[in-house]
């Protein structure tokens, strides 16, 4: 109804109005204007980890909204922000205890990279080089986009600071062995040695926009070791993976790694209200006493750490804990991966991979992925197209029955579009 006045993000301007207008969400299902219910394999905007319409989250938002919607965190404070930052300090490993609250994943990246670069100035040994994955994605503000080497994200503007983007070998899609981890770590070692010591490495524990690429176990630990060797700060982008998505609370937990800086968004508020966060060590925060103009971080947004968002985030942590959503993501994800395994026999399917509730079927062509996504929608299932990949990213509250329904529906959609090898 409003589509003709809406400039949709990351979409061709000439595309027709989106045929699906969603008006309601309950649990793991959403309903459109025609009254059709869909199983939500996209978790809203990849963030509704607790499902839709969760009474605990609604109540937390309503209570905070009625008490105090928001207040300035520059000159004052509010208990909702104090509580969530305290809880994040308890949840995160090591000395990760100082959290800046922002509104989105991009802002979290923006702040994290600035903090990392300025840290080196603060300690009197400036560094500006950043190492990252070429297929990584960390947000769409200028600084965050500058990190990525994905063709979509390149603006052609002047570089902001030197970035060394490590390419994945083609076989990295399902690279799951210790040898794969060693081979990829060698590429990072080359990147470290290819210039002055890097200020920071910025990595996702699983490459989301890059195509749901699961990293080989042990790679993050090897990158941590390189960072220790060069004194480089390890920034882990948990915007997508954080709060249970991959079947562990954080993506870096799979490798038992402690980063120096962590960025979060999406699952932190289950997408009910915008929130992002950057958590650093106390030493990094304290270095800002040497900042010449403010003796602090010259960064912040009016609604960063919005009280309603902060209150919802604390309720999300309760729900994730009480409903066992991290373990549920691991169990349902393993089942889903298993059920979708037969797709590997289809000539149009390149790979089936996943970790927790991020399951990706890579096809040979974006047109195949697009047809499967539309076919699934016709069958009452929403899944996401990412280039040639079909990605399944449901709420972490997915039940056993819904897992089976999701797998059966997606298999049926693939059957309609392409057939297994030898099947005539
Ligand atoms: N980092 C990662 C890993 C992401 O997946 C995203 C969003 N897709 C972002 C950063 C950017 O977050 P936002 O869209 O909230 O700015």
UniProtKB/TrEMBL annotation:
Chain ranges passing through the membrane: none
Name recorded for this polypeptide: Beta-alanine--pyruvate transaminase/adenosylmethionine-8-amino-7-oxononanoate aminotransferase
Alphabetized InterPro entries for the sequence: Aminotrans_3 (IPR005814), Aminotrans_3_PPA_site (IPR049704), Class-III_PLP-dep_AT (IPR050103), PyrdxlP-dep_Trfase (IPR015424), PyrdxlP-dep_Trfase_major (IPR015421), PyrdxlP-dep_Trfase_small (IPR015422)
Required co-factors: pyridoxal 5'-phosphate
PROSITE patterns: AA_TRANSFER_CLASS_3 (PS00600)
Family named by the database record: Belongs to the class-III pyridoxal-phosphate-dependent aminotransferase family.
Gene3D superfamilies: Aspartate Aminotransferase, domain 1, Type I PLP-dependent aspartate aminotransferase-like (Major domain)
Matching SUPFAM superfamilies: PLP-dependent transferases
A matching Pfam family: Aminotran_3
Protein origin, superkingdom: Bacteria
Keywords, in A-Z order: Aminotransferase, Pyridoxal phosphate, Pyruvate, Transferase
Organism: Micromonospora sagamiensis
Record GO terms (molecular function): identical protein binding; pyridoxal phosphate binding; transaminase activity
């Amino acid at each position: 109804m409003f589509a003709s006045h809406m400039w949709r993000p990351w979409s061709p301007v000439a595309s027709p109005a989106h045929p699906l207008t969603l008006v309601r969400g309950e649990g793991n299902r959403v309903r459109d204007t025609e009254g059709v219910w869909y199983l939500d394999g996209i978790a809203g905007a990849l963030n509704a980890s607790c499902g839709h319409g969760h009474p605990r989250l609604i109540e937390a938002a309503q209570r905070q909204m009625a008490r105090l919607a928001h207040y300035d965190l520059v000159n004052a404070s509010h208990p909702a922000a104090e509580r969530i930052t305290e809880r994040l300090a308890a949840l995160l490993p090591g000395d990760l205890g100082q959290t800046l609250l922002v509104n989105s994943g991009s802002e979290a990246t923006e702040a994290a990279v600035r903090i990392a670069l300025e840290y080196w100035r603060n300690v009197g040994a400036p560094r500006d080089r950043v190492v990252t994955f070429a297929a990584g994605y960390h947000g769409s503000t200028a600084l965050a986009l500058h990190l990525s080497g994905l063709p979509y994200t390149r603006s052609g503007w002047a570089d902001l600071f030197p970035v060394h983007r490590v390419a994945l070998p083609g076989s990295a899609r399902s690279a799951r062995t210790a040898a794969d981890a060693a081979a990829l770590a060698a590429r990072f070692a080359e990147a470290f040695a290819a210039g002055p010591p890097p200020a920071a490495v910025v990595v996702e524990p699983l490459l989301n926009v890059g195509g749901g690429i699961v990293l080989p176990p042990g790679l993050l630990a090897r990158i941590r070791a390189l960072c220790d060797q060069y004194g480089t700060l390890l920034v882990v982008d948990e915007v997508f993976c954080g709060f249970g998505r991959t079947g562990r609370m954080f993506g870096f937990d799979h490798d038992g790694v402690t980063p120096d800086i962590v960025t979060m968004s999406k699952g932190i508020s289950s997408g009910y209200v915008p929130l992002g966060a950057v958590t650093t060590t106390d030493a990094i925060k304290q270095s800002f006493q040497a900042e010449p103009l403010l003796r602090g971080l010259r960064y912040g947004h009016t609604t960063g750490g919005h009280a309603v968002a902060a209150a919802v985030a604390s309720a999300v942590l309760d729900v994730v804990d009480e409903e066992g959503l991290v373990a549920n993501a691991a169990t349902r994800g393993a089942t889903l991966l298993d059920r979708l395994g037969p797709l590997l026999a289809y000539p149009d399917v390149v790979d089936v991979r996943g970790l927790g509730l991020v399951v990706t079927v890579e096809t040979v062509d974006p047109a195949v992925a697009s047809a499967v996504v539309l076919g699934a929608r016709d069958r009452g299932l929403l899944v996401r197209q990412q280039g040639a990949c079909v990605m399944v990213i449901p709420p972490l509250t997915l039940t056993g029955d819904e897992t089976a329904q999701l797998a059966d529906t997606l298999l049926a959609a693939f059957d309609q579009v392409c057939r297994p090898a030898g099947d005539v």
